[in-house]
């Protein structure tokens, strides 16, 4: 009868461990948010014409400056958290007594490091171009683009409905 009770305790502990793992995973996925990439236009893309019929929104100018800027994206921490939970659960299955506690801690730390590395590997560096235009009326406008499509400083451009086109 003693081996049966021990088997039930072991099974109960594994069920609790798996339940905690599933709950932690659900919380991690539900609470983490990865910022979405900004939506940049494409130079020379077809403008979306307004139905107002006015041509007052068309302006002309020259490209005065182009800067390539990097978007800084930070880690959400979800990979480290998930890795720590999984590593802790796996480490908890090893040894008994003090050895189990050490294995759980080591598994959590190792899992956090590995989870963070996996999350970082999934992210790609991102950059965009900031195009400064001096309009013929003296105003300055700035546009952000993912791709310049050959646009250079000094190019004559047309601005219509917030779309920049080489002219």
Describe it.
The chain is of the alpha+beta class and 167 residues long. It has a domain at 57-78 and 125-166: OB fold (Dihydrolipoamide Acetyltransferase, E2P). The chain is built from 3 helices and 6 strands. The chain has helices at 2-31, 78-92, 98-122, and strands at residues 41-42, 59-71, 126-135, 140-147, 156-160, 163-166. A 6-stranded mixed sheet has the order 1-4-3-2-5-6, with no helix packed on it. Helix 1 runs antiparallel to helix 2 and helix 2 packs antiparallel against helix 3 (98-122). The longest helix has 30 residues, at 2-31. Mean pLDDT is 76; it is low at 34-39 and 45-55.
- Count of beta strands: 6
Helix vs. strand class: alpha+beta
Separation, N- and C-terminal Cα atoms = 89 Å
Helix content: 40-55%
The main sheet comes to:
6 strands, mixed
The main sheet orders its strands as 1-4-3-2-5-6
What is the CATH architecture assignment of the domain at 57-78 and 125-166?
A: Beta Barrel
Please identify the top-level CATH class of the domain at 57-78 and 125-166.
Mainly Beta
Overall geometric form? rod-shaped
The name of the CATH topology of the domain at 57-78 and 125-166 is OB fold (Dihydrolipoamide Acetyltransferase, E2P)
SSE sequence, one letter per element: HEEHHEEEE
Share in β-strands:
25-35%
Give the C-alpha Rg: 28 Å
Report the mean per-residue pLDDT as an integer.
76
Main location: membrane
Protein name: Glycine zipper 2TM domain-containing protein
Subcellular location: Membrane
Domain Glycine zipper 2TM: 78-119
Any chance you could write out the topology, listing elements then pairs?
Elements lengths: L1 H30 L9 E2 L16 E13 L6 H15 L5 H25 L3 E10 L4 E8 L8 E5 L2 E4 L1
Parallel strand pairs: 1-4
Antiparallel strand pairs: 2-3, 2-5, 3-4, 5-6
């Amino acid at each position: 009868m003693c081996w049966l009770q021990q088997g039930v305790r072991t099974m109960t502990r594994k069920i609790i461990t798996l339940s905690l793992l599933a709950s932690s995973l659900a919380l991690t996925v539900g609470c983490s948010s990865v910022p979405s990439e900004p939506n940049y236009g494409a130079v020379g893309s077809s403008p979306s014409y307004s139905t107002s019929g006015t041509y007052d929104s068309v302006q002309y100018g020259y490209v005065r400056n182009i800067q390539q800027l990097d978007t800084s994206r930070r880690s959400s921490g979800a990979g480290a958290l998930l890795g720590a939970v999984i590593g802790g659960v796996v480490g908890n299955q090893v040894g008994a007594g003090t050895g189990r506690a050490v294995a759980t801690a080591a598994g959590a730390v190792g899992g956090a490091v590995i989870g963070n590395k996996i999350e970082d590997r999934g992210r790609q560096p991102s950059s965009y171009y900031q195009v400064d235009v001096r309009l013929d009326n003296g105003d300055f406008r700035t546009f952000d683009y993912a791709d310049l499509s050959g646009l250079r400083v000094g190019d004559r451009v047309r601005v219509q409905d917030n779309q920049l086109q080489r002219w």
